[in-house]
Amino acid sequence: MTVAEPGSRADEALFRPVRAGNPFEETVERLLQAIKLGVVAPGERLPSERDLAARLNVSRVTLREAIRALTEAGYVESRRGRYGGTFVNEHLPKPRRVSAKQLSRELGAGVEDALVLRAALETGAAEAAAARELTEAEADHLRHCLAETSSASLGDYRRMDSRLHLAIAEVSGSPSLTSATADVRMRLNELLDAIPLLAVNLEHSNHQHEAIVEAILAGDPEAARSTMQEHLSGTAALLRGFLT
């Protein structure tokens, strides 16, 4: 049995208290963020019901309703017994099949807004991470996420790529930045899922990931920012190419 790592910055950022106005919808959104961005991986168990309800600041009834909705949608399953709990399914639902151009029409100006916001957040996160003296655990976490992304299958690549970018925000030391990065990545993921994974692009992307992580670990904020900016510019150009 594998349990999601407790106490990580992404864990804290995504399982933060929800707003009072729509607790059910926001609880579903937070749990989906944790699953789709790789914070809780397939086969891992979500934090306990008591812990999650307290951290999200929702009733256990609301949490159970949200978990039931995700169970019906195919994202999680509940297991009974001594080692029971709510587990992320090994095989997650496939993203809806829709063209990038159709999604672009649906999202309208929101696409450019999300791309600009992502560039501002993630270049800043890389720079801030490189400016900090990382703990050994933080450095190992970054290396681990990089290795998992580099070796990911095509089916897992988007999720592992999301997890690496979120890890960079985590080691910036700002939970608010981590939350914002998760939010904007969720806005863009449906678009990213709608464009093909090209082998040459993935190879280039992995080299850029390595350069970003190396700059962060070397404590070089300027290089971390510039390499992240180049990486995000390439992704944005690819997206715009498929959207036009």
pLDDT under 50 segments (min length 5)? Answer: 1-7
Quaternary status: single chain
Query: Which CATH-level-2 architecture of the largest domain?
Result: Up-down Bundle
Describe the main β-sheet briefly: 2 strands, parallel
- Structural class, judged by helices and strands? mainly alpha
One letter per element, helices H and strands E, the order comes to EHHEHHEEHHHHHHH
Estimate nothing, just give the exact number of structural domains.
2
What is the C-level CATH assignment of the largest domain?
Mainly Alpha
- The number of helical runs is 11
- What is the distance, rounded to the nearest whole angstrom, between the alpha carbons of the first and last residues? 46 Å
Q: How would you describe the overall organization of this protein?
A:
InterPro entries: GntR_C (IPR011711), TF_FadR/GntR_C (IPR008920), Tscrpt_reg_HTH_GntR (IPR000524), WH-like_DNA-bd_sf (IPR036388), WH_DNA-bd_sf (IPR036390). Residues 21-91 form the HTH gntR-type domain. One of its GO terms (molecular function) is DNA binding. Helices cover 68% and strands 5% of the residues. The strands form two sheets. The protein has a two-stranded parallel ribbon with strand order 1-2. Strands 3-4 form a two-stranded antiparallel ribbon. It has helices at 9-14, 23-36, 49-56, 60-73, 100-107, 110-131, 136-150, 154-170, 175-193, 199-217, 221-243; strands at 2-3, 44-45, 76-79, 85-88. The chain is mainly α and 244 residues long. α6 runs antiparallel to α11 and α8 packs antiparallel against α9 (175-193). The chain has two domains: 2-88, Winged helix-like DNA-binding domain superfamily/Winged helix DNA-binding domain (Arc Repressor Mutant, subunit A); 100-243, Up-down Bundle (Four Helix Bundle (Hemerythrin (Met), subunit A)), CATH 1.20.120.530. A hairpin with a 5-residue loop joins β3 and β4 (85-88). The chain contains eleven helices and four strands; from the N terminus they run βααβααββααααααα.
